[in-house]
Design goal:
The complex is a heterotrimer of chains A (289), B (316) and C (251). Chain A has helices at 10-44, 50-54, 70-100, 106-120, 123-137, 143-167, 171-179, 184-213, 239-247, 252-285. Chain A is mainly alpha-helical. Chain C is built from 10 helices and 10 strands. A 6-stranded mixed beta sheet of chain C has the order 6-7-8-3-9-10, with helices on both faces. The chains are: A mainly alpha (289), B mainly alpha (316), C alpha/beta (251). The structure holds adenosine-5'-triphosphate and magnesium ion.
């Protein structure tokens, strides 16, 4: 008997080869993240100034003169917060319903299927839909319209994330509560909500991060302006569009500022992403696993 | 009121609350189910003027896009979408499959726990930032590295000959798209592979198969529909990607013949023109028609892949 | 005694938890060895160290040696797949591969290129299905998916699949515990028939099965080897108090 490895046997060579190219593929994918971050950082940082995040555009800003993009930063925060808020109002009941009443029902399957389908609809289509609604109702581009379009983009992301995380919740706890005589609604509210908190937070932050970076849905619905909006009916600037428009400028200084704006957007999105990870892991400590 | 009655009333109240909540919650769940339909119908109504005036086939296959002369041929845009998406998917799929198989079958828990946040971050980066990256890195890369490599060598190869000198074009768009859809394809494929019970892997390893033999003969055949669905899902995501692609494909409404050509995909058409030339008759209807075409194609892709995935990933 | 497997100073850890404590045994060739002991004592773990399945669980660690025919299967330059070819495993639950009945049996032979042409594979498949006592039941439906078989038939199919790669050792981790009494009996009689050509190591929870099958017995408790010896001696005259209690059904 001899178990000695024959390294040059075909299948061992194949195994080695496959494993090697798999590792290379992983390195390529991982390093593309590094590449993106490095590109944005190295090109954005030089033109990032304090003015950019504290000032709104002054006259001649788009020709390279003074000012900043505070209007876009605030606008994006308004848009994403509003969109997230509306999405929460719809998502929470849907996620709760899916968990409490429709775990294995046909209807639950339809709802989940619909959410998956909605999740796959590109934001440009939501934007076009929002615009179609606006012209039908005779409305102009505004913060409100942008918020509604973003809410549609965020709704499936948020609900799916919530549903997904909650689904992993241990079921014993819920059954224990049911056995103690609570109605399903009470289970949903008390036990499930407490247990679901990590899922809810993850879903909300994920959707917020997506919302703040989305350009195609707010392109026609929110408009663009140099002022910070004071009412829901004002048009509003947004960070992704600030990047987009500045990059289209013939002035190199303005394009440089576009890179800086991209850096600001990236930093916000990364903060949200890390924040949700951190929060979810903190909250997880206090829930039964 | 005696005690029993009090308890009864509380009980009834609770039950009522339960039923009431159930009804309201149920009502809200109707919204996502009909939203797709609402979007499609709204787009259809706004696009109706052009659909009633032109033959659908003229719109879809017409080659000339001159709105001020009343010519609305979508063909260059549809082909542009197909080209960019195809290149993106072809570039993404091999790497994505390798990575997801590696993570699901070979990698240690530690590698997985490093890879997951990386993929999450890749998925979290906004499209416009991908666009900036494409503009700053990929377009020059295509221009300075890939095009010179292909020039002279691949000129006679159809689809690969270098046709224009700027770096903007299908290849740049495809590369950016490939990176953008990678996290989705990888995570869905990973989940699909994880549905294979370890018993099956052990059955194969137990007779002395290598890991790759096990993957090829047992794991992949078992999960093939799900893997294909993951790819289709990635493709449908690529079809609708707007801003990032728009920033690097050149946006010239020609009929592409090579991956170095410029293209003008449908989403870019909508994004670039909407709300601008509203004075031209039927222009907005044509653009919403384009959105409708995009929506319908994506819905088909999406529903098919989602149905497969829902069956495969149904929690056991 | 002619030892086929020798275990020397074997320690196995799941994370930091020690699951096998300094195990030393010799497992006789061409006999049926039965491993007994209360739940959680490490029987499965011990069995898994024989075909190097233990390392498939993440975060595990192993020290010591397992020698098969005098060769340490944990040596650096050992080919795991060769070990697993020689040491076959019959799992607790039957796990037919998601392919036809025929392909299930042919699977291992193909992996190791044990036959030359289609005809040889056909005779091979027939041969091992006969050994597993399944041929008569499935000869007309070889191309049907293996999952269409009953659980008991599936387990015999897994036996045929394991035997088809020509192992020398068969491991069985409670191989009949998922089966009905008649199927169990069927598997048991296969194992008894096969013991002339194969070294067999079985984990079982049923004392009666152990008595029916065992030539040699290993008794474990809390990760330690308490007693090992020829079946007759251990059953009639256990040396250790724990073994006695176990045999009397006190656990
Ligand atoms: N995958 C694992 N991770 C961590 N600990 C494990 C794992 N598998 C087994 N253990 C632990 O190792 C010890 C031995 O387990 P093992 O499965 O070998 O017992 P067993 O004798 O086969 O039990 P049973 O008769 O119930 O099958 C137990 O304490 C168990 O908790
Ligand atoms: Mg066991």
């Amino acid at each position: 008997m001899n178990f000695k490895k024959k390294h040059f046997e075909r299948r061992h060579l194949i195994e080695l080869f496959i494993k090697t190219i798999m590792r290379i593929a992983l390195i390529i994918v991982a390093s593309s993240l590094g590449l993106i971050l490095w590109t944005i950082l190295s090109r954005g940082l030089p033109s990032l100034t304090w003015d950019m995040v504290t000032q709104i555009p002054k006259g001649g800003y788009y020709m390279g003169k003074e000012g900043g993009i505070l209007n876009a930063i605030i606008g994006s925060i308004y848009l994403a917060s509003g969109g997230t808020l509306i999405a929460i109002i719809l998502s929470l009941p849907i996620a709760l319903y899916l968990q409490a009443y429709a775990q294995d029902s046909k209807w639950g399957d339809y709802v989940r299927l619909s959410l998956d389908v909605l999740w796959g609809i590109p934001s440009i289509v939501y934007g076009a839909f929002g615009f179609a609604l606006m012209i039908s109702l005779g409305l102009r581009a505004s913060l409100l319209a942008g918020i509604i379009a973003l809410a549609l983009v965020e709704l499936p992301i948020m609900t799916r994330a919530m549903d997904e995380v909650i689904r992993r919740m241990p079921k014993d706890l819920e059954h224990a509560a049911l056995a103690l005589g609570s109605t399903k609604f009470e289970v949903a509210l008390r036990v499930v909500t407490r247990q679901m908190l990590p899922g809810i937070i993850t879903g909300i932050l994920l959707a917020f991060g997506r919302g703040i970076g989305d350009a195609a849905s707010v392109l026609f619905t929110a408009g663009y302006t140099d002022r910070i909006p004071t009412s829901l009916m004002n048009p509003t600037a947004s960070l992704p569009l600030a990047v987009f428009f500045q990059l289209g400028s013939p002035y190199p200084e303005v394009r440089e500022r576009g890179y800086a704006a991209a850096l600001i957007l990236t930093i916000i999105v990364l903060l949200v992403s890390f924040g949700s990870r951190w929060l979810a892991s903190r909250l997880n400590k206090y829930t039964v696993k | 009121m005696n005690q029993v009655n009090v308890i009864k009333t509380i009980q009834e109240n609770r039950t009522k609350k339960n039923i009431f909540a159930q009804k309201i919650f149920f009502g809200i769940t109707i919204f996502p189910v009909i939203l797709t339909l609402i979007v499609a119908i709204a787009l259809f109504f706004r696009a109706f003027p052009i659909l009633s005036e032109y033959q659908l086939s003229d719109l879809l296959f017409g080659e000339v896009w001159r709105p001020n002369q009343g010519l609305f041929g979508f063909r260059p845009f549809i082909l542009g979408t197909i080209w960019v998406t195809t290149v993106g998917v072809i570039l993404a799929v091999p790497a994505c499959l390798l990575v997801s198989i590696y993570l699901a079958e070979y990698a240690h828990a530690r590698t997985r726990s490093i890879a997951k946040p990386i993929l999450d971050l890749l998925a979290a980066i906004p499209p416009v930032v991908y666009g900036v990256w494409g503009l700053l890195s990929i377009v020059p890369f295509v221009d300075d590295v890939l095009a010179p490599l292909a020039e002279g060598r691949l000129d006679s190869v159809p689809l690969l000959s270098v046709t224009q000198p700027t770096g903007f074009g299908i290849l740049a768009g495809g590369i950016v798209l490939a990176v953008m859809i990678a996290p989705l394809i990888i995570s869905v494929t990973f989940e699909v592979l994880s549905t294979v019970p370890n018993d099956l892997r052990h059955a194969s390893l137990g007779v002395g198969a290598t890991q790759w033999q096990t993957i090829r003969n047992v794991v992949i055949p078992q999960t093939l529909p799900g893997i294909i669905a993951a790819i289709v899902l990635g493709a449908s995501r690529a079809l609708g990607e707007t801003i990032a692609v728009l920033m690097v494909v050149g946006n010239v409404p020609n009929i592409p013949t090579s991956i170095f050509d410029t293209a003008y995909p449908l989403p870019a058409l909508i994004a670039n023109n909407y709300g601008e030339m509203m004075s031209i008759p039927l222009y907005d209807a044509a653009l919403l028609g384009a959105a409708l075409v995009l929506l319908v194609v994506i819905l088909i892709f999406n529903i098919l892949s989602t149905l497969v995935l829902q069956r495969m990933l149904r929690r056991k | 005694m002619d030892a086929h497997i020798q275990v020397k100073n074997l320690n196995a850890y799941y994370g930091k938890q020690l699951a096998l404590k300094n195990i030393n045994i010799e497992i006789p060739k061409n006999q049926i060895t039965v491993i007994m002991g209360p739940s959680g004592c490490g029987k499965t773990t011990l069995l898994k160290t024989f075909n190097r399945f233990f390392e498939l669980t993440e975060n595990t660690q192993l020290t010591g040696e397992v020698l098969v025919d005098g060769e340490n299967i944990y040596n650096k330059d050992v080919d795991v797949t060769e070990v697993r070819k020689v040491v076959g495993l019959l799992a607790q639950r039957p796990s037919p591969l998601p392919m036809s009945i025929y392909d299930n049996v042919a699977y291992g032979m193909r992996i190791h290129h044990l036959r030359k042409n289609r005809e040889e594979y056909k005779t091979g498949v027939k041969h091992y299905l006969e050994i597993a006592g399944l041929w008569d039941e499935v000869c007309k439906r070889l191309s049907e998916p293996a999952t269409s078989l009953s659980i008991g038939q599936q387990q015999r199919l897994c036996l045929a699949r394991g035997l088809a790669v020509e192992p020398e050792i068969i491991l069985g981790d409670e191989p009949t515990s998922a089966l009905d009494p008649i199927s169990s009996q069927n598997i048991e009689s296969r194992l008894l028939e096969l013991k002339k050509q194969y070294t067999t190591v079985i984990v079982t929870h049923t004392l009666r099965q152990a008595k029916r099958l065992a030539d040699y017995v290993i008794f474990m408790y809390l990760g330690e080897l308490i007693e090992a010896g020829p079946a007759k001696e251990v059953f009639s005259n256990p040396k250790h108090e724990r073994t006695k209690q176990y045999l009397e059904g006190l656990f």
